[in-house]
Amino acid sequence: MSRAVYAVMGTVLFGALVIMVAGFEALLLDRDPIDEPDAGTLLGPLMVAAAVLVVLLSLLRSAALSDARDHKAPEVRGTFPAQPAVLGRPTVTDRASAGAGDEVAGPRGPAPHLLVPSIVAAALVYALMLVVGGVVYGLVRQELVWVLLFAARYAVSPFVIGSAVCAGLVVAGTLAVSRVDPGRPQPRPSDS
After folding, report:
1. Structure confidence by residue, pLDDT tens digits, 66-115
2. Residues 142-168, mean pLDDT to the nearest whole number
3. Do 63 and 55 touch, CB atoms closer than 8 A?
4. Residues 134, 148: contact at Cβ < 8 Å?
5. Which of 17, 27, 150, 162 is positioned for an S-S bond with 134, CB 3.0–4.6 A?
6. Can you list the alpha helix ranges (DSSP code H) found in the chain?
7. pTM (2 decimals)?
8. Rounded to an integer, what distance in angstroms lies between the CA atom of residue 124 and that of residue 102?
9. Neighbour count for residue 154 (Cβ, 10 Å)
10. CA distance 167 to 51
């Protein structure tokens, strides 16, 4: 399966987790995720949409970097711009020249870290949710000061913090799962 498919599946999982966590927080804390009575019904969904966009772009970027590291080109057939599936794919001769015997050639270069992209995604989700919420609420109130007041009030909100934690976990988990290639035989431990 393509790493881009994992990115989309991880993004859908993140959206579902944010909705679920916000629902449980609202139920357990007996308060709405957005307490402002004049905020309207679109403020929370716009904040979540910004967070989902950050997670999607983070996962797609990591997928593209991993594909470039492994010298794989995404297969696109029947659409424009199409890249031939044969370009950028390792050939049998490339794999054979990488080692002798029944060794399995690994990916080229070191594997990327999981911790850095997940922390960056969580921090971006946290910051962008506060910025989007503050800007939208500032537009609703038609006063610039509400941008900062909204961001300051919701900086410790369980809705924003829970979304950032979910983003970090989903990005780390999706990147870890997308590294496993079930089509490639795994190296066997030696019998000695």
Report:
1. 777 776 655 555 554 444 444 444 554 544 444 444 334 444 455 567 88
2. 94
3. no
4. yes
5. 150
6. 3-29, 43-69, 92-98, 115-141, 145-153, 158-179
7. 0.74
8. 44
9. 22
10. 8
